Amino acid sequence: xxxxxxIWIDHKKAVIVSASDEGRITTQTVQSDVDAHPHYGGQxxxxxxxxxxxxxxxSLERYYDEVIAQLAEPExxxxxGPGEAKLELQARLGxxxxxxxxSIEIETADKLTDPQIVAKVKGHFKIxxxxxx
Length: 133
Fold this sequence. Notes:
Layout: E1 3-9, E2 13-20, E3 25-31, H1 49-70, E4 76-81, H2 85-95, E5 103-108, H3 114-125
Helix pairs in contact: 1-2
């Protein structure tokens, strides 16, 4: 089955858009429990900066694993968003042991509403949804 996907992602949430060859579009949101990564300024729970950085990295890895687990196996994937999360997800996808899509494109995008995210994925892949003639 032809399947295309798009993920808008930042460190707080990911919106996964899947499109089938029949033109059916589905969306799914994965919320992150990753705290903001402030500059080390003294008081941190459980230790120093290195421990905090390691816990933060592990939280991000769990978040990216959850996003990857919700992702079908697309033939092409667009990963977009405002910050570093899109590149971190791409790297994590490469280390996940899952077969990566043959085509992964990365784009920078501002914060978008869910309908704007769907429209961007549809426009990127030039998807005509069933019933939109």
